[in-house]
């Protein structure tokens, strides 16, 4: 996993749970290039709920 080391547990949990989306206010730590190989996308809360 190449996302921010302080947030790797979040991506790991998403992968294990087979989640499609991580909803976070911290998008800079969940860049598309770091998530694409895991089949996960990141969205802001406002983007998710709209």
If you had to describe this structure to a student in words, what would you say it looks like?
The protein is α+β, with helices and mostly antiparallel strands. It has one domain. It has helices spanning 8-16, 32-35, 45-49, and strands at residues 21-23, 41-43. Strands 1-2 form a two-stranded parallel ribbon. The radius of gyration is 10 Å and the shape is globular. The termini are far apart. The model has no long low-confidence stretch (mean pLDDT 93).
Structure described in brief:
The chain is α+β, with helices and mostly antiparallel strands.
How many domains make up the coordinates?
Answer: 1
What does the average pLDDT come to? 93
Radius of gyration: 10 Å
List SSEs in N-to-C order. Answer: HEHEH
Distance between the termini: 29 Å
Q: Spans of 5+ residues with little confidence (pLDDT < 50)?
A: none
Number of strands: 2
Keywords:
single chain; 2 strands; 50 residues; alpha+beta; two-stranded parallel ribbon; 12% strand; 3 helices
What's the SSE blueprint?
Layout (H helix, E strand, L loop, with lengths): L7 H9 L4 E3 L8 H4 L5 E3 L1 H5 L1
Parallel strand pairs: 1-2
